[in-house]
Amino acid sequence: MPLPALLVLVMLFARLVPLFMTAHQNYHHWLHAMPALDEIEALLASCAASAEPPPDALPTRMAVGEAISLEGISVRHPGRNRPALEKISLRFPVRTTTAITGPSGAGKSTLADILIGLLVPDEGELRVDGEPVAGSRRKRWRQSVAYVPQEVFLFSDSIRSNLLWAAPNATEDELNLALEHAAADFVRSLPQGLDTVVGDGGQRLSGGERQRIALARALLNRPSLLILDEATSALDLDNEARIRHAIEKLHGELTVVIIGHRLPTLEHADKVVVLDNGRVAVQGSWHEVGMFLEAAG
Q: Cα(103)–Cα(120) distance, rounded to whole angstroms?
């Protein structure tokens, strides 16, 4: 082969070999990414299959006239042998306080998701005044429920702005009334009052102050059902007592469900429900449940 032709071939290979190596590396990257891509596509398909149709208009809230009830609720999570909830039937009369307690993994958070309307049970129904909460009624119900978790979230904005997320058209008097009902009167003593900026996640406030702001935000929306999910478990005794006092003042005015472990928070409930392994172990008054647990050892 003539030398000039050989030099041309060498130059071609010198250029092509890095390109082939890059293509080979990209092929391997693609092979490694394929499982993740398959999982993403499966998740998107699952979300699309479970998606609710968009509402024609902003859902209106649902008022509760008599009671909220769970009828034969069972929930099974994929990959688990034991149901998260099994044949749960409970009634929550309007303007009463119900405490739900039990060990970790008993199904308390799953029960809260059912009550909120976030989770559709595998069996049974959520009913409001005897009517099933399904279809468009589920969206209306979610607009009617306020939920305060253990770890609340506040925007890096003023207290006023954080409250107005729940009710954008709330007046000054309504904001102050919600703060009063949530035992969050400390806001008035702040130099800038409602216009005080709380920082990222509310870091400029104490844990108890953040919880009380979150409770005020929940009350501002005038919910048909208020769910407090371990709302005081991370607080010291003083702040827990403040939250407990605020909850006690709501007794008879609002339908409240308290999920927790700390006994003083649950003591003044109209009914106490103990869950164990996804089932109702016992329900009744605080005294009745206490006697049952004492007898059970």
A: 23
CA distance 262 to 232: 8
Closest C-alpha to 240, from 251, 255, 230? 230
| Alpha carbon distances (Å) from 56 to 49, 140, 194 | 20, 12, 35
* Tens digits of residue pLDDT in 55-70: 666 567 888 989 999 9
* Model confidence pLDDT, tens digit, residues 236-249: 677 677 777 777 77
- Is residue 285 within 8 Å of 273, Cβ to Cβ? no
Nearest residue to 61 via CA among 113, 116, 139, 163: 139
Q: What number is the average pLDDT over the span 183-197? A: 86
CB-CB neighbours of 279 under 10 Å: 15
The CA-to-CA distance between both ends of the chain, in Å, stands at 96
Alpha helix segments (H runs only) across the chain: 3-50, 108-116, 136-142, 159-164, 172-181, 186-189, 207-220, 237-249, 263-266, 286-296
Q: pLDDT tens for residues 70-82? A: 999 999 988 888 8
Mean pLDDT of 229-258: 76
Q: What is the DSSP string of 80-115?
A: -SS-SEEEEEEEEETT-EEEEE-STTSSHHHHHHHH
Residue-by-residue DSSP string for 272-293: EEEEETTEEEEEE-HHHHHHHH
List the structure tokens of 170.
Answer: 């709330």
Query: For 194, which DSSP code?
Result: G
Q: Among all chains, which residue has been given the structure tokens 């607009």?
A: 143
- Cα dihedral sign, 19-24-25-29: positive
d(CA 107, CA 74): 11
